[in-house]
Amino acid sequence: MDKNGKEKIVIVDDSPFSISILKDILDEKGFDVVGDASSLEETIKVVKEKKPDLVTMDMTMPGTDGLECTRAIHRIDEDIKVVIVSSMMDDEIVKKAKENRVSGYVQKPVDPDEITTVIKRAMVGEDLLHELEKIYFDVFKESLSDNLNRLTKTIPSYGNETKSNDAESSRGISAVVGVIGKCSGRMIIDLSYETAKNMAEVVLRREVENIDACLAMIGEFANIVAGNACSTLNRKNKIFGLRVAPPTIFHGKSLNISKTSLKTTSIIAKTDFGEIYLNIGFKRGEDEWMQN
């Protein structure tokens, strides 16, 4: 950071036009552009002299490429972040960029809001997790209440929140939804077969004769709760970049909810259909680093 608290950025690109356009965008967005380079040798020189927080990197340059320059930068200082800014973007390039510890990827022509988000996301540290930890549980709990009300026209009541990562016994059915982004985590909704059946019959408006219909309903309900909650959190701070994975359903008479390294918070929702256990936790993560 410079003395004004702005991120110091070096632009690497063999096109003076692209450097000029990008510099104007970054200046306007409040970053401090401290230098530029158009070759491997110039990149090494300016990075050593200016000690930037982040380098924007073109992929194609005469005699070198963005990944070779990235490796050279990290030999100087492994903490310098690199964001690729290139006209080319495909799965193979993205894979190689990740392997070379690139922190983000923006395709030309550069959208000012997109590159600002990618740079901010690359630079965030523990503060982002602390911000998320203050708000995520209330958002997930509200999502469960809202969506239960939408589907069944009922409103749950809640017991006391508990913070623990210890293993415990399942009630019979567990829906697990993974969350990825700058912070990654996991949500579990756990309930009994009877609760699932009672809820499914109200949602489906018919008698449920087999467990498969219950499992399908609980999986979709968990997906909706987690997806809505993550959307709300992203609106509060788009740097979170949270995305949900498809739910995984576990069920059985001797099922256990395993101990986790996450700091999790739990609560029991008391509904007209029976108890629903809600458990969520987050930690720092680097997945989905390209997403807005």
From TrEMBL:
Positions of modified residues (4-aspartylphosphate): D58
UniProt entry keywords in alphabetical sequence: Chemotaxis, Phosphoprotein
InterPro entries, per the entry: CheC-like_sf, CheX-like_dom, CheY-like_superfamily, Sig_transdc_resp-reg_receiver, ST_Response_Regulator
Domain Response regulatory: 8-123
The keyword Phosphoprotein belongs to this UniProt entry's keyword annotation: yes
CDD domains attached to this UniProt entry: CheX
Cited function: May play the central regulatory role in sporulation. It may be an element of the effector pathway responsible for the activation of sporulation genes in response to nutritional stress. Spo0A may act in concert with spo0H (a sigma factor) to control the expression of some genes that are critical to the sporulation process.
Protein name (Swiss-Prot/TrEMBL): Stage 0 sporulation protein A homolog
